[in-house]
Predict the structure.
Amino acid sequence: MEQLTTIGLNHYLTISAFLLGFGLFAVMTRKNAIVVLMGVELILNAANINFLAFSKYNGGMEGVMFALFIIVIAAAEAAIALAIVINIFKLYKSVDVSSIDSMKE
Amino acid sequence: MFELPSGAEIQGIIASLKASVGFFIPEIYLSVLFMLLIVIDLVAKGRKNNLLSITTLLGLAGSTVFIYQQHALPAGELFFGMYVLDEFALFFKYFFVLSAILAVVVTMADEQFDREVKSMGEYYALIVAMVIGMIMMASSADLLMIFLSMELVSFTGYLLAGYFKRNPRSSEAALKYLVYGAVSSGLMVYGFSLIYGITAQTNIIKISLELAAHGSDSLVMILATLLVLAGFGYKIGAVPFHFWSPDVYEGSPTPVTAYLSVASKAAGFALLMRFFYVAIPHGALPPEDKLGMDWLSLLMIFSVASMIYGNVVALWQKNVKRLLAYSSIAHAGYLLLGILVMDQFGTQATLFYLLSYFIMNFGAFYVVILISNKTGSENLDDYRGLGKKMPLAGAALTVFLISLVGLPPTVGFIGKLMIFSALLTKGSLYIWIALVGIMTSVISLYYYMLIPLNMYLRESKQPDEKVMNPGMAPQIILAILMILTLYFGLFFTPLSDFAKYSSAMFGITLH
C-alpha cells in the first residue's frame, strides 16, 4: 500500500514510458505533419521526465542540465520544423505527410 | 539541496576552462567564419557574385592550418570531460573541412542554383555550421555534447535539403528528413536518459567504467541500446533506419546530397565508433562480455541487412541520384563491417574506406551535376550517348563507378580489400559476413555498370553529335578527382598510414 501512496522513482518512469508510447503512437498513425511534430515533442518530454527523475534519485546535476538543453533544442527544432511545414503548405496546399510523396518509384 | 561552490573552486573552474580553450581553436575559428559569412551576406545583399563562395573556400582552407597545429597537442579530455582531442578526432576534422570545401566547389559548378534561388544567402554559412557540428560530433565524449552536436548537424541538414524552397521535391526532401530525424533523435535521447539512469554518469568513459564495475539490467540496457542505435543508424543511413535516405537524396540539391552522403554519414560513423568502442565496456574475453556482444550482434544484423537491401533495391532504380542513395545504404553496410572487427586494423580499414568513399562519391555526384547542367535530367535513359558528347565526364564517371564497385586499380578496391582482410583475421563467423559483402559487391556491379552502358553503348534518342563542354574549371577538378581515385588505388600507403595513425582513440576499452 505504501508503494501507491508515496511517489517514488517508478511513478515518474511510468509516466515517461506512457508519454513515449503516446508520442510514438502519434508519430506512426497520424498523417498531419503538425501532429507528427507534436508526437516528437512528447518523446522529448518523456526523456526530460526521465532525466529529472534520475537526477533527483541519483543525486547529480547532469540530468537537470540535460533536461534544460533538451527544452532549448526542442524549441529550436519546432522553429525549423514549422518553417519547413509552412513552406510545404504553400507548395502543396496540404500538410498531410502521406499525400506528399512525389518521388516513389 | 546543492551547495554553492566556494570562491577558490570557481577560480579553479575558470582556470580549467581557459586551459581547454587552447585546444578548441579550430572550432572557434570556424564559428567566427560562420558569423563572418552571415555579415558578408547582409552587406552584399542581392548581388550574385562569387564573394561568398570564395570567402568560404579560403576560410575553410585556413582552418586546416589550425587543425594541423593540434597535432602537437597531447590527447586528452577538455571542458570537464565534455570534449576530447585525439588523433581520431583530428582525422575527422580534416575529413569534414575537406568535404565542405568540395561541397562548395561542387555548388559553384551547379547551374540549378541559378535557376531555383535568387541569392545564395545563408547557404554557405549553413555549410560551415554543419562542419562545426560534425567536428563536435567526432570529438564529443559526453551524452549531452553528443546530443547537441548531432542536433546542430541535423538542423542545418534539414535547411540545406530544403534550400530550393520553391521546388516541391526539395521541400518534400526537407520534410521527410525532418520527420525521420526528429523522431530518431527523440528516441536516441530517451535511450540516453535510460543510460543515465543506470549509470548516473553522462561522460562516456565514466559510463564504461560504471557498466564494467556494476553491470546492468540486461532488459533495460538492450532497450537503451536499440534506442541509441536508432539515432546513430539514422545518421549513417543503415537499414532499418534508412527510410529517409532515397527520397532525401533524390529531392535535395545535388551538392547537398553529395555533402550529406559523405560528410554527415562519416560523422555518424565517427560517433558510432567512439560510443561503441569507448562507452560500451569490452572485456578481455569478448564472448564473456554480454553488453559488448549485444551491440556487436545488432551491428552485424544492420550491416548484413544494409548490404543486401541497398544493393538489391538499387537494381530497379531509373534515377541516378536515387541509385546512388541506395548505393550509399549499401556502403554504410560495408563500413559497419570494419567496425565489427573491433581492433586497430578494423578501425584503420573503416577510416580508409571513408576516405576512399569521400573521393569516389563526391566525384560521382560532381559528374551527375555537370551532366544535369547540360541535359537538365538525372534519369538513366537520358544518359544515352553522353560518353561521346562529354568524353572526360563520361570517363571520370566510369572510373568513380568502378571504384564504388570495388574493382582494381582504384581506391575503392583497396578500401574493400582492407575491410574484408580485417574481417577474415577474426575467424569463422566473420567469413560468412565477408562472403555476404563480396556477393553483394558482385550484385552492385550490375547497376553501377548500367550507367556506362547507357553512356557508351546505347545511342541517344535525339541523334545530335554536338559535343557538350562543361567548362574549364569543372573539368580540371574532375580530372584531379579521377587521377586521385586511380593514384591512391596504386599507391595507397600514405592514406593507409594516415588512417592507421588516426585509429588511436582516447579512453578506448578494446583489447
